[in-house]
Amino acid sequence: LKATSLTLLLGILTLSNCSPTDENQVEIGDDGNSQNYLMAATLFTQQSAEYTALCHQAYHLATMQALALAGQSSKPAIILDLDETVLDNSPYTAWQVIQDRPYSPDTWTLWVLQAQAEAVPGATAFLHVADSLGYTIFYISNRDTSHLKATMQNMADLGLPQVDTSHYLLKTNTSDKTERRDAVRQMGFDILLMVGDNLGDFDGAWDKPANSVQRKTLALAAASKFGVSYIVLPNTLYGTWEGAIMGYNRDLTEATRDSLRKQALQPANL
Ligand SMILES: [Mg+2]
């Protein structure tokens, strides 16, 4: 009994020691890690069955459309983005959180050159169906052209189809993919389906410096295309949506970025 009382007393003392006072509020989880904002997004991607289900839902729609449109063109093509569409880079953001390291081209390159990304759920099966139906597949990605070899190695290891240089259009001078989509059309292909996680994967309008309201207005205007000719994958980790919150300024400090995120929240009145 005495031991139990002592344990309880110690527990109470410890609790009161750790209790934040009004003058010195310590927020739970606020440990100064600038990358903690990625925690929930990364856990959702890596741990939720719902992320897996959403990806399969998207690729199921893509498969139904590919089947429905088969035979409607003599040169049918499907365009896919790579990152967070075909390749899962959530280990990179998990690394950011664990190491408290913001995104940088140098560390991103280290990750890409490892060529260890897993396929996004549903992507592999869809790509094989599209391949067998006679579609030419184009991978239009904003990975740097210097990453082509490692990217192809990664995708070949995953057993993905049409992994050769003629099927890749990586970033040369602009992240806007409009010119690369036009290049596919100029080769005589009919682009019947596009798959991506960022709306700029479908139309350059979403890649132009537009604020969040403008981007949503564009999405409403294109609503009838989603799940039909535009197949959208979920990406909670990053995207142009985040650039819009940051005013497309890549030179902001982590503190300013944190402040802009908080300003963008639309809270309930409680
Ligand atoms: Mg992407």
Provide an overview of this structure.
The structure is a single chain. By secondary structure, the protein is an alpha/beta fold. 46% of the residues lie in helices and 12% in strands. It has 11 helices and 7 strands. It has helices at 2-18, 39-47, 49-69, 90-99, 105-114, 123-132, 148-157, 178-186, 212-221, 240-245, 254-264; strands at 76-80, 87-88, 118-119, 136-144, 168-171, 190-196, 230-232. The strands form 2 sheets. Strands 5-4-1-6-7 form a 5-stranded parallel beta sheet, with helices on both faces. Strands 2-3 form a two-stranded antiparallel sheet. Helix 2 (39-47) packs across helix 3 (49-69), helix 2 packs across helix 4 (90-99) and helix 3 packs parallel to helix 6 (123-132). The longest helix is centred in the first third of the chain and has 21 residues, at 49-69. The chain is globular. The chain starts with a helix and ends in a 6-residue tail after the last helix. Mean pLDDT is 91; it is low at 6-29. The chain binds magnesium ion. The site of magnesium ion has 7 residues, from loops.
